What we know:
By secondary structure, the chain is α+β, with helices and mostly antiparallel strands.
Amino acid sequence: MRDDDLQERITRHLFEVLSELRVCVTRMARVLPLYEELLPDGAGPSYREALVRLRGAAPVMLPGAVHQALAHDLGPDWSGLFRSFADRPVALATHGQVHRAVWHDGREVAVKIQFPGARQALAHDLGQLDRLSPLAAVLLPRVGSVASGLLAVLARELDYANEAKGQRAFAAAFSGDPDFRIPAVVAQAGACLVTEWLGGSPLVAVARRGTRAERDRASLLLFRFALAAPARCGLVHLDPDPANFRLMPDGRLGVLDFGAVGPPHPSELGALLRTAAGGRLPRIVAAARAHGFAPSGTDADLRPFAALLRSMTAFVREDAFAFSPRWVADRVGEATAPAMLTAARHLALPQPYLQTAHVMPALLAVLGALGGSGSFRDEAAAYLPGFA
């Protein structure tokens, strides 16, 4: 069998599995376009055709079901809370869908409604993604890591009361900020969340059609937000899905979806990144051992892991750095090279870094898709404790 025929069969089967997902399918349809550049040569056409089918598989609640859900959570007189309510959804969330409306006080709002049976659907998806893992390793290693990282946050996003709490914390911390816009929570009840409407251009659109200045601005602010949030509100936004960020007409970065937030990254992260960016392998190896990335007493060769850390931190080593899809693809190649896979058998992921290990690679992938440039080292020095 020819290699391109094999790739096409793998791609088709991969998306057959994805299309059977009940909750994650919408998230996958939003995220996967950013990783098209990472596909092996020749896989693009099959990938794009399958992606169209995947988007079409996303579920949608009909108006009757929407009204029933609103009556259940907001009360039988729910329509009196709105001046107007659009029955047709404007966006699909991971566990539900979003409608545009006008609140009774005249504010434009977004109304997020959870799909009935979302918890049972998530349990179903866990089994489906188990089938995805070996395929992802062959076709696109990033998909496997994205999928496993998504599962860590999907369950949290089912709790809209917790999401409202997190969004209120971020909105208060960034109130009046010249660089960021966090919409206020208007109301929350059960599986319904009403927030202020946020316009702007999603980062997927910025990556594809934005000017160089827009992509640079979005990249810098996205990186700044990831570093500044812990100091501002004691929390980290754990879901760097590009659909959760908007470049506003006034140049601010709008942030959505606070269903998955967590505590700050380890206080030692800044020092580790500084050492890795320094570029000397013996020092990086020593730091990796000191931070617990190798079980005590092991004499495993950590140089491939140290080399990977060095290359992954180039963006904070140089005075000015330009991200690109090719840069991300090269890092994926290094992470899946035989020497690194051998070293990985002897590595341990310290508990404090579990959250970081999910967020940072996904963040770098989005930055790669944006292709922005700037002084990310200065941002790290300003906002990441221990780096300067």
